[in-house]
Specification:
Layout lengths: L1 H29 L3 H20 L2 H34 L11 H21 L6 H10 L8 H15 L7 H18 L4 H20 L2 H11 L6 H21 L19 H30 L4 H18 L8 H8 L19 H24 L7 H21 L7 H17 L2 H12 L5 H18 L17
Helix pairs in contact: 3-6, 3-7, 3-8, 3-10, 4-6, 4-12, 5-7, 6-7, 7-8, 8-9, 8-10, 9-10, 9-17, 11-14, 11-16, 11-18, 12-14, 13-15, 14-15, 15-16, 16-17, 16-18, 17-18
Length: about 475
């Protein structure tokens, strides 16, 4: 009996000792290490000190400056990445000389961006402004860090290889991600998180256009962040810091460098009213053509077919009209500086005799395709924005309007001035944000003396569109899941 008891108790003792020995290892695996515990303790002390010594309002204003600084750096970095990729992709080639590489580049760019989002990022960062509108409406302020680096990489691939759209949507989404990340780090309330998301989005727009007021109005007019005093001050602080940061990093230069715009002739304001009506009608066409393109691409179940279709369509447009390559700021700069003849120096119609009507025809062709190309870029797998295409379209529409009237000897308008205010008209009608359009346009070219005619064109264009459409540009677009890329 004694021997049996010894045998029965020995395994029990061994099992208990084994459990006791293994328990600390199991607990240690689930518990923080001493170093991480110290870091967590310091982190908790910092949060406690902040809550005790700095009010929520003051802390949000402080963070808005940080958000503006980081968003400005991100905007400069995105521009640098786009220009670097474009330079590498087009090395030794000139757009518009019927070089077939420009038929293939958009296919490569959109395919790479789509595959990056689908398989590496595993998130959809296209149509960033639309997603921000939905997130803010649904009170979802916790944005993934993927929105920051994912937007920058995918957008630089898309636009650097010819996607005919803009970089403002991705940078706004990245800025919102920066604001959300800082709010999450400091455990801010949902109300304060919403302010920081709006600050980041507006700072992204301000940094990419170097237009602080336009960026702030984007947050208030397009995203519709609640107009509390702290929100307004925070947004303006963030956009001012972002614009100054991007401006300094880019060598104190503007994307659209106007040499000498001169003074607008206020005696021609009646023609500005007419341009506003034309911009409103064109905005309806732009929205309709873009929507039809989006629906066509959405019906394609194969992502490869979507990449190929959208990329080839954009490539054909670039072969016909080289100014459609990328964001189009180079063409806008030439037109506003009075060098519209360069539009006919390459492309399908370059072999024809240069006349004013040839330039009018080229502008008409680009206006016919711009909405389609922008929608194909944004919804065909690429990652880009919607603002730059509207500015480009408005510039060409204003040029075509003034040049046609001058050639018919109806009046004598300054084509460069009407191209400039046409930018405000098209953006106001297409995006349905007149205040942002008039200030952003005048800020980015440094021509505040054009604020009055830009306001006239923008408001009339907006009113024309709102007669037929009661929603906003972003509320009328469906959400696209990552699986649909």
């Amino acid at each position: 009996m004694t021997h049996q008891q010894t045998n029965t108790t020995t395994p029990s003792t061994t099992s208990a000792s084994t459990t006791t020995a293994s328990a600390p290892a199991s607990l240690t695996a689930n518990q923080p290490t001493p170093n991480s515990y110290k870091r967590l303790k310091r982190y908790a002390k910092i949060l406690a000190w902040r809550q005790l010594h700095i009010t929520d309002s003051g802390f949000v204003l402080l963070l808005s400056v940080v958000v503006g600084l980081l968003s400005g750096i991100a905007a400069w970095l995105l521009k640098l990445m786009i220009s670097t990729i474009a330079k590498i992709a087009s090395e030794g080639h000139t757009p518009g000389e019927w070089n077939w590489i420009y038929l293939i580049l958009p296919v490569i760019g959109i395919t790479l961006a789509g595959l990056f989002c689908r398989y590496l990022l595993k998130a959809n960062v296209s149509n960033g402004v639309k997603k921000m509108v939905d997130d803010l409406n649904n009170k979802q302020y916790q944005l993934s860090p993927k929105t920051i680096y994912g937007s920058l990489i995918a957008s630089s691939l898309t636009l650097g290889m010819g996607g005919t759209a803009g970089s403002e949507g991705p940078i706004a989404y990245a800025g919102a991600g920066i604001g959300s990340g800082l709010g999450r780090i400091f455990r801010l309330s949902p109300q304060l998180m919403a302010i920081l998301v709006g600050c980041g989005a507006g700072a992204g727009i301000a940094g990419i256009f170097k237009a602080p007021v336009g960026g702030a109005l984007f947050t208030l007019e397009v995203l519709r962040v609640e107009l509390s005093t702290i929100a307004v001050i925070g947004v303006f602080l963030a956009t001012l810091v972002a614009a100054l940061t991007a401006y300094a990093l880019s060598g104190c230069t503007l994307d659209i460098n106007v040499v000498s715009p001169g003074a607008f002739d206020n005696h021609t304001l009646l023609w500005a009213v007419a341009l506003g009506i034309v911009c409103g009608l064109y905005s309806l066409y732009y929205t309709k053509s873009g929507g039809m393109t989006r629906h066509l691409l959405d019906r394609m179940s194969s992502p490869w077919l979507k990449y190929l279709t959208s990329g080839l369509a954009i490539g054909v447009m670039i072969l016909l009209f080289p100014s459609l390559y990328g964001e189009g700021y180079g063409a806008i700069t030439k037109v506003i500086n009075g060098n519209s003849d360069t539009l006919a120096s390459a492309g399908a119609l370059s072999h024809l005799e240069l006349t004013p009507w040839l330039i009018v025809a080229i502008c008409g062709g680009m206006l016919l395709f711009k909405g389609i190309g922008s929608s194909a870029t944004n919804n065909g797998g690429g990652v880009a924005g919607d603002f730059a295409p509207t500015l480009f379209a408005g510039c060409m529409l204003g040029l075509m309007f003034a040049l046609a009237l001058n050639t018919l000897h109806v009046t004598d308008l300054n084509t460069a001035h009407y191209a400039l205010i046409g930018m405000a008209g098209a953006m106001a009608g297409i995006i349905r944000a007149p205040l942002m359009a008039m200030f952003l346009t005048t800020e980015m070219v440094g021509g505040f003396e054009f604020l009055l005619p830009a306001a006239v064109v923008a408001l009339i264009s907006y009113c024309i569109v709102m007669i037929f459409k009661r929603d906003t540009f972003y509320h009328s677009q469906p959400y696209i899941s990552p699986q649909q890329l």
